[in-house]
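COURSE: Structural Biology Practicum
ASSIGNMENT: Worksheet 4, Part C
STUDENT ID: 0417
INSTRUCTIONS: Below are two proteins. For each, the amino acid sequence is given first, followed by its structure token string. Answer the questions at the end about the second protein only.

PROTEIN I
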Amino acid sequence: MNLSLYLIEKFCGRDVALQSSRCTLVDMTNGKQSPFAVYKPEKNHGDGNVLIAQNFMEKHLRNKIDVGALADAAKISLRQFNRRFKAATGKTVNGYLQLIRVERAKVDLDNTQMSFEEISVNCGYENVSFFRRIFKKHTSLTPFEYRRQFGRRLN
């Protein structure tokens, strides 16, 4: 639908595109798809040490994760660990951790009545406002907007 509205605007002008937007009930002002994106981590990369680190991070989201300890557990230097992690997943360790924490928060916002403060702590962030900014950066919505748009109606 967004592509159609884009093409209408390009070839027929903004007024016609806005009129089409109103008729089809498609919001033309927010063409971002980031709220709908789901991050699925790459795990078929063949690096066993990175896979162990990924699984550890996913199981211990709530805890402070020390990248140095992950490198030590893999018996490689921190620099080499960071390089191998980025090569295997396409993300830095901290970037990966942010994305999986945001995905966890999205699931909790969808399926629970927990406050965002509780969700932040469950995802490993004590600073709720910092996590709120990270959440908005990755989804382009505030947690409240995300829950309103995608959350299930729970009693």
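PROTEIN II
(use this one for the questions)
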Amino acid sequence: MPDFLTLGEWPDAHARYAYAHTTALANRAVLLHDCDQLSAHLFARALTAAVLVSPQLQPDERLALRWQYDGSLQHLTIEATPAATVRGIIAQTHLLGLVQEKPQIYGTAGRLSIVRSSAGRVLGSSTTAAALFEIVDDLAHHYCTGEQVETALVAMLALSSDPTQPIRLCHGFLLQALPDADLPRFDLIRQRLHLPAFRQLLADPPADADHAARLLQALQDDPAGPPPAATATAGPVPAYRCGCTRAKTLESLRHLPAAELRAAYAAAEPLTVRCHFCRQLHVFAPADYRALLEPA
């Protein structure tokens, strides 16, 4: 099934939700970055979590999430747009050879930095301790403490032995309390995200876009009761997409020392730049970057 995003509100619980199916997105990302299975697991779940929060952005905004830990993972960066497009960088793409047990992934200290921007201008930024030592849980904790919005967030995936499609299934679910929510009840619902019935639904491939309704039903006080009266709207199609272009990359060469540019031009050397997000290699002949040597 193609990737999709379902958004809605659950009035009875005074909450809003998002459900994302991101298998194709996750496969594109981990193949581009040549991730082993452990790195793929972390990277794909972080990308899915970013998709789930992306609809909260205004049309011209961007969101940058950066997790930093003193363990082997080191750092992971995800950028998201309100169109549910994401791109990212994971510092260690082959973690399996670096760790023998889970605590080594995260280490003993971490922080999560979030920057919201528009047209290159920072609209807001915050940093919270990433003390739960789990990427998705640390993001949910940020919204609960840094944004003061009670949040439940789950992202799950199943790996495959097929090297051309290393992720068999990836999807996630977000539930956030609205301002008038009964917080004790919301917390009870949040705890149900860990029940086997709900986890099994997230472990199953969605048969259709109504999978979100089945997830909500599993969170009800009476899961065997009638389906919840919740709204459901199709959101933008999630995608791993980089905004780099040849023109933007050429312009970035202005940040190189002028002496370095002049030396390369004098030696008739091409300059190469590889995008960290999409791994595309841009090659510029001396004639391409000659204008950068001229006074602005």
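ANSWER KEY EXCERPT:
Q1: The radius of gyration is 21 Å.
Q2: The CA atoms of residues 114 and 280 lie 26 Å apart.
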